Sequence to fold (179 residues):
Amino acid sequence: MHSQASVERVDAAAVSPPATPLRSVSPPGVRVRVPIEGEADVTLAGEQVRRLASRLDFLPSDVTVMAAAIREVAGNILAHGRRGDVLLHLIQKRGRLGVAITARDRGPGIADVSQALRDGCSTAGSLGLGLASARRLMDEFRVRSEVGRGTTVTMRKWARSRLDVRARIRSSSLRAVSS
Fold:
């Protein structure tokens, strides 16, 4: 079964802070919820983050990274929780804009989160790179899990201006030449 992403417009004043201690304020904009019930929904979640990130000045490589991280955590929802959802929304913190991604399920939970975040750890017979890879790809990453109740993964990626990146590259090139 293929789900539809639900999109809603929200006002900044109406946005409640996430359940995790990562604090930020959402600018006026769009929140997207993608129910995860099958493989097509994992793909849909990746497409939705690409659309949302296009509203900000993300580098194309950062958009690809976010889509990859979503595929990892949404795939875990299917493998372990059977169903859940991915929530996406624009965030703002200290003048920086970004995308927050929350993936949650009501599956069996993770008994040892620190072990699950290590490369090679798998309870599903895979390579065990999912959570560890997603953590490396994102700027902020948090897992909350309770055995028997489910897991919530919260990730954030902050936009970097293309001009800022070019300036850093030029600056480091100039330092290398003058050395």
Remarks:
- Helices lie at 39-53, 60-81, 113-116, 130-137, 162-178.
- Residues 37 and 106 are 12 Å apart (CA to CA).
- Residues 6-178 form a domain with the Heat Shock Protein 90 fold (CATH 3.30.565.10).
- The longest helix spans residues 60-81.
